[in-house]
Amino acid sequence: MPNSPTLLWFRQDLRLQDNPALCAAIARGGPVVPVYILDDQSEGRWVPGAASRWWLHHSLAALDAALRERGSRLVLARGEAVTELLAIARRTGAGAVVWNRRYEPAGAVRDIRARKDLAAAGLEVETFNGSLLHEPAEIANKQGGPFQVFTAYWRHCLTLPVEASRRLGPKEFFPPGSWPASAELGDLKLLPTRGWDAGFYETWKPGEASAAKALRKFVGEPMEAYVDRRNLPDVEGTSRLSAHLHFGELSPRQVWGAVQATARESGVFPPSKGAAVFLSEVGWREFAHHLLHHFPHTPEKPLREKFAAFAWAADPGGKKLRAWQLGATGYPIVDAGMRQLWHTGWMHNRVRMIVASFLVKHLRLSWTLGAEWFWDTLVDADLANNTLGWQWSAGCGADAAPYFRIFAPVLQGQKFDAAGNYVRRWVPELAQMPAKFIHAPWEAPEDVLVAAGVRLGDNYPRPVVDHATARVAALAAFRQLRPGARP
Question: Which residue in 390, 392, 426, 429 is the catalytic one?
Fold first, then answer.
């Protein structure tokens, strides 16, 4: 029905700018009713974790505030999405529902069912791509199948046009004559009941305005230095846009456009090596969704089937896993990363690779255990990225690290945290250790340990495994999957 209300169903697109579904809702000409429904049941196994729910709470609050500035508001509900949408449609007399598509397996299934059921109820339905540069199903290699090597995938994507982002004017909303009942944000129970999230408030400010500010800040000088600084965890050399992108407070088209804007004077795109590498990280996000779309089983099972038979180590009582989770492995760079994760809900990407390699190759514990822990503790937990990252580290996914690449945590710390500042920040027990020994305190003379106030096995643990021994054991286990292979 023309000019009847349109339900705008928000999910992982919690923004007003460059929101195709929002533009379509406004273009229909009638009132727009923005709706968010917390539908945990339809998420399957991957219900958002505790850290993600913290971010979601504050992002929804920011979205509602932005809508109210334009004379609108966010209608909240909790339950099965289609049931709630139909109920809101009846109460408002809505004639259409629009949304931006989800691409995770459970989300895609729900979208198909929602489209069918809503259309059967007489509602017009339109869906859009508001989350990616390119639709995963529309990208194919020369054989017509999915890409499994990032370089070839991204080279192909760079030949394709990217839509310009769409800007919303200040007075385009037309609110309904009366608003349907809405749950209160607190009714969704997204915030933790225990105060483990204090560090989140110190570190993050969710919402579209914060996302835009972070992007503007990064595309200046930090992006120029990205190649040199992105692997250094003790400096702010990365964009920290991952959570904003996951929750759709920022679109990848906006990122692309911001980088393009820096190229106007030179006419060269990308305008610098830093910009090219930064955009390739956006490409990895696209690649992750491409893989998840074509291989929906991979959050639980390895892409390379033979890895299903890998001989993971026993861990009686889960002691080694717990040491890893708590940042108590005795390897300072690993412990620093895990403690940063717990305190802030985020970890530097270089350190993510180090701690992941340590779990699957030093401790020989399944990558799925790491993926589950990250899912619950990362504010930017994204099923596609999480799956790709952990399968890459374990060597069982697409474009994965070779099985014999085992990051030596001491050498990684010395290379990327040479002065030890990152470790000192997150492992304060070692704050007084000289840089020479901070990444391997067990090698320090006793007088150095005493001067630094470090008591190994007391106020800082000894290593849970010996690097050399663990490496040999891991290589032997991995070689069982590849007869005749040599490191």
Answer: 390
